[in-house]
């Protein structure tokens, strides 16, 4: 396994494995859990991208509690090898944070089917594969915590982000089922549902929106992009999500869902209480268009 920041301790009191730690929520969560005394196995597709994490770990004086390992969540054999090696060396995985993911954007008609599959392979099937690999050890110890980083897009779909929303809706349903299955085994399952935060995922998503020359959706897509950029510019610091994940690890009985971010709770309350037509109008108004203005 590729690695950096090895510690001399072979057995740690508490071990956390986090996917997608080269930036964003994953990077900050790795630092947060290391500061809380966890031995953090920080995984990412390429450890060459772990420089920022290790630099900040040194600044925070938690480098000895952090180990970077290469892990591609779409590679089943690598997942099995990595989880097996962690268990062989440290004897346990107390916390699994499934964070690895990215965003595919574009209107449904114009996103190639291959991109839908690639989105689901990383955001959903990769999460399932890592969870399956970690579950036997947690179940055998009758102890463990699985935190799946979902999104507010896993509770409410938005135009222009169908593939991303579909992947996160899948994570939500999977997590509900898994929580039921593991309740008698002492393994807790939690969903963290961030709204907009200043992380690289949206900048990358905005740069890779799928469209076609002469698209009939150009006006709508431009409105989505304008709204997304405005949201990104005013989004809060993602450290709030990392601190929430840290607090959840200390809870005796965490609930299933934790929505966090500007407007997230308001959106969920609105969806639960308002007629769908009102919600549709509100989202359209937010994009500076009305439902009647749509042209095919």
**Helical percent range?**
40-55%
Mean pLDDT: 89
> For the largest beta sheet, what order do the strands appear in spatially?
1-4-3-2-5-7-8-10
Number of helices: 10
| CATH fold topology | Rossmann fold
Quote the distance from N terminus to C terminus: 51 Å
CATH superfamily: NAD(P)-binding Rossmann-like Domain
Strand elements, count = 10
Give the secondary structure arrangement, pairings included.
Blueprint: E1 3-4, E2 15-18, H1 24-35, E3 39-44, H2 51-59, E4 66-70, H3 76-90, E5 95-98, E6 105-106, H4 113-141, E7 144-149, H5 162-182, E8 187-194, H6 200-207, E9 209-210, H7 218-234, H8 239-249, E10 257-260, H9 264-273, H10 276-286
Parallel strand pairs: 2-3, 2-5, 3-4, 5-7, 6-9, 7-8, 8-10
Antiparallel strand pairs: 1-4
Task: Characterize the structure shown.
With 296 residues, the protein is of the alpha/beta class. It has one domain: 3-Layer(aba) Sandwich (Rossmann fold). Helix content is 48%, strand content 15%. It is built from ten helices and ten strands. Strands 1-4-3-2-5-7-8-10 form an eight-stranded mixed sheet, sandwiched between helices. A two-stranded parallel sheet has the order 6-9. Helix 1 crosses helix 8 and helix 3 runs parallel beside helix 4. The longest helix is centred in the middle third of the chain and has 29 residues. The chain starts with a strand and ends in a 10-residue tail after the last helix. The N terminus and C terminus are likely disordered.
